[in-house]
Amino acid sequence: MFKQAVFILLLVPVLLFGQSTPNYKSYNFRAPMDIPLILAGNFAELRSNHFHTGIDIKTGGVEGQNLYSIEEGYVSRIKISPWGYGKVIYIDHPNGFTSVYAHCQKFSDRFEKIMYEKMQKENVNELDAFFTKDEIKVKKGEMIALSGNTGGSVAPHLHFEIRETKTEKPLNPLLFNFNIHDHKKPEIRGLKVYALTENNYIVPNKSRYIYASQNGSSYQLNEKLIIDEGDFPVNGKLGFAVDVIDRLDGANNICGIFESHISCNSSELYSFKFDKLDFGKNRMINGHTDVYEFKENRRDLHKLFSNPATTLENYEGKINGIDLRDLLDSNQLTIIAKDQNSNTTSLNSKFYFQKNAPLKLNWENFLMPHDTYAERNSEFELFLPGGTIFEPIEKDYSSNECKWDTTTTQYHFGNYNTPVNNKVHVRLKIDNKRHSKKLVICRANMEEDYYYAIGGEINEGWIETEVKGLGDFFVLEDTVAPEISPNNFRDGQLVSRDLKIKVEDNLSGIQKYETYCNGVFIPGYFTAKKSTYEIPFEKINVSGDFELKVVAYDAVGNKSEKVFRLKK
User: Fold this and answer.
1) In whole angstroms, what is the distance from residue 142 CA to residue 70 CA?
2) The whole model's pTM is what?
3) For 269-338, where are the alpha helices, taking DSSP H only?
4) Cβ-contact 375, 381 below 8 angstroms
């Protein structure tokens, strides 16, 4: 069969691999900053539950670096949020691309004015505003914002993206003509070997990791690899995942790779290339990589096979997983890894095939990825649509007294760390005596001994919600209002800087927050990671004594209010 595969694959490079990436370097974009562009993260780098959809540019560990529009165009969107991209600006360009500048400290004066007036008019602190092409035009090189650390950012930097305007798909910015130096080859640290079903699902407990080391210009496995047919089911396949990272010049940060190819006995099998991504499929990173290997050993694995639950557009090739019937007693394995600058490295090793009786598997107690499944009883319901999980998992249901509240029951289904692609619908029966609008469903991570609220709506004696995850679920009542406390001032003080206020909640989470200066609403910014609400000093348009009122609501309607008397 490998002879037939060789003939087919003679055509594959022309039909598939011969489709070169468009010449993005022909576009004359300027850099988004005037400082040297040194990266903390690159495109398609492996992150928790998503691929990184842009590049992270270092800003010297500080905020406030000037950000510039890379080309003429118009502002199509500005968003202010305590989560995700924080303060972010989107610019559409005439050439069909959109540039995105995220985690900004603040926008340029004219954009700040537009957003502040909208927020004050609507009495909101968060806003997602869209604009037409005739409203806010920008010039190439115009200063549009200052770099920052807002939203989900953990250190000052610029998260920068280029997207196709029409499809909104993010493109790899390193394919464009930015002056970002990269002369380092990818580093192959090891290989993981998997026993697969005929549909390329991983056979539980039938995989192993093997370290690799550099040998001259390439890498090789550190030990002899023997594949035993007795570890595989009937019609099983062999799969490999490569543990590979990349680094760019100027920093030692671990980054992702651009593409990788696998060959067996000189026949190319499968490959991937990260020239673009699809937000709608971004969570499929959990099918592309080995989630458990990263969690347990911090290894960045890229599978060189895919199953029906992982349908990324980045895969190429006709032979997906190696059919055991095609293996010889001795086989030559080659894996090639490239970065976007064509720096290339490879792993070349032999492996040996040992024939044996196939593994007998009993899948009766397992859920397969495309099964639709419901766990139902008189007190608990959990529904998984088909395509929710990426690999087979055991049917794992139980109920016990809640660890954190002995008056309620804790329901368990599946491992908390099992990655999911779709929302799981969860319903819990509630006691009639607890028919309270203050109830919330909580999800617990039993391994790390913590829980958090995921909300819920009450309907006919049940509370229900949707969540992207499995694990342990129970119901608690939230009757405690948020806590408000000054962070950098005290009551009666003369103030001369931005005011920071700590706003925290014990369970359901902060839902809404408002600030009034002498009865007039003042928009502020809530930093979720610090539970801190910040009020710009320059927006307090008073002199002398003034009254600052802060109001906070949690997700179930508990309200707190505090009044401070200050001077300016």
Assistant:
1) 8
2) 0.92
3) 285-288, 291-297
4) yes
- Looking at the chain, which residues constitute the CATH 2.60.40.10 domain(s)? 483-567
With a CB cutoff of 8 Å and minimum separation 6, the contacts of 211 are: 189, 190, 221, 222, 223
**In this structure, what is the dihedral angle of CA atoms 109, 114, 116, 119, given to the nearest 10 degrees?**
-160
The CATH H-level superfamily of 31-175 is Glucose Permease (Domain IIA) (2.70.70.10)
Please state, in angstroms and rounded to a whole number, the distance separating the CA atoms of residues 372 and 387: 8
Q: Which fold has domain 483-567?
A: Immunoglobulin-like (2.60.40)
**Alpha-carbon span 113 to 109, nearest angstrom:** 6
Residues in a beta bridge with 413? 397, 471
Encode the chain (568 residues) as per-residue pLDDT tens digits. 444 443 333 333 333 444 466 789 899 999 999 999 999 999 999 998 999 999 999 999 999 999 999 999 999 999 999 999 999 999 999 999 999 999 999 999 999 999 999 999 999 999 999 999 999 999 999 999 999 999 999 999 999 999 999 999 999 999 998 989 999 999 999 999 999 999 999 999 999 999 999 998 899 999 999 999 999 999 999 999 999 999 999 999 999 999 999 999 999 999 999 999 999 999 999 999 999 999 899 998 999 999 999 999 999 998 999 999 999 999 999 999 999 999 999 999 999 999 999 999 889 999 999 899 999 999 999 999 999 999 999 999 999 999 999 999 999 999 999 999 999 999 999 987 676 889 999 999 999 999 999 999 999 899 999 999 999 999 999 999 999 999 999 999 999 999 999 999 999 999 999 999 999 999 999 998 899 999 999 999 999 999 999 999 999 999 999 999 999 9
Output the six-digit token pair for 10.
């003679």
- The CATH number of the structural domain formed by 369-473 is 2.60.220.30
Residues of CATH 2.60.220.30 domain(s) within the chain? Answer: 369-473
Strands (E), 439-557: 439-445, 450-455, 457-459, 462-467, 471-477, 483-486, 499-504, 510-517, 520-521, 525-527, 532-535, 545-554
